[in-house]
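Entry:
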Amino acid sequence: METDHPVHYVKPRLVAEIRFATWTKSKRIRKPAIFIGWRKDKKSKEVTVEKIVAPPKQKRKEKEQSDSKEKFISNWKTVLSIPVTQKDTIEIEGKKVELTNIEKKIWHDVTKADLIKYYDSVSPYILPHLKDRALSLHIKHIAPAHKGLYIKDMENHQPEWAEIFSTERKHKKRGKRNIIDYLVCNDRATLIYLINLGCIDINPWTSRTSNYLYPDYVIIDLDPSDDDFSKAVETARAAKEIFTKYKLTAFPKTSGKTGMHLYLPCSGFTFPQARSIAENICDRIHKLIPEITTTNISVSSRGSKLYIDPNQNDEADTVAAPYSVRPARQPTVSTPLEWKEIKKGLSMLDFNIHTIEARLKKKGDLFKNVLSKKIQDKNNIYLNKL
């Protein structure tokens, strides 16, 4: 058993009924697991692992024929067909991770091996922001600026030691499985597996698997329509005025591309409530600087204005993690900032794969308190008014 806390073993006396998707290859319960109730009609000695009984031959044959007719559309076929020119296996915390094509150049001065080393070096800082969060994978199998592939469902391609969070697909699609197995990155081995697979950036949910319908923060995305980062700087400063007025604690970071992400820690809000709060805050920011910003969702109507975006606040939405490299023309990193740093002359290009380690040694994790319950509770009081 793997756990982050001390284990206290007890004798099995009570019997509980738990609903869950299935067993993993390593004989663990696949999340989510839901407590149904106590079974007073059962004794603990009567509980055994259920055995799968094969159906009669005729029924099994009919099922196989039915399954063969259903053609699942999957990007895994492309990922698994990438030519392998070099292969090696390393062991990380007792888990074997395969590395392939590490000599490949991703940017002119950064190889795949360099990218893997970067993520390993920042793993103590990025993993707390990934823990127990489902991921959507963005595979850049050709080049950072080239169109990539998106993968949500692991379809049993993950290593047997990897954590999975399973949910039923809300909107059934022909050619797609009804259950989505999301990967969860809780350790270094999974992080390195992701990068080797072809991910450049890491994109977690804003909620955790244990409470996946309730986000841990409200996200405000500052997205310049004309890639003018100075507009993101000015808008972030206006946002800080709003946060100060409403006594809210917010954490800014560069998006790693041309904008910024502003995190407002919270708890107990549903996604629809979080989105409503975000929309109210976006409107207030826009009213402070309407000359350079817009809340118009229509791209064609924005012109050169910065879009103050509340749309990262829906269930299963993802945001680039703090310290995540971004698939841009240069190896820029989504980097937490101090509010005092957000001023004229700030350049997102200063935050890249070559500069982050020194910055972390100097400043530590500026996003550490994003996960603070004390800050969540304090913000909740004022967010409720919005």
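The helical segments are 57-69, 76-80, 112-126, 188-197, 229-245, 271-288, 356-363, 373-383.
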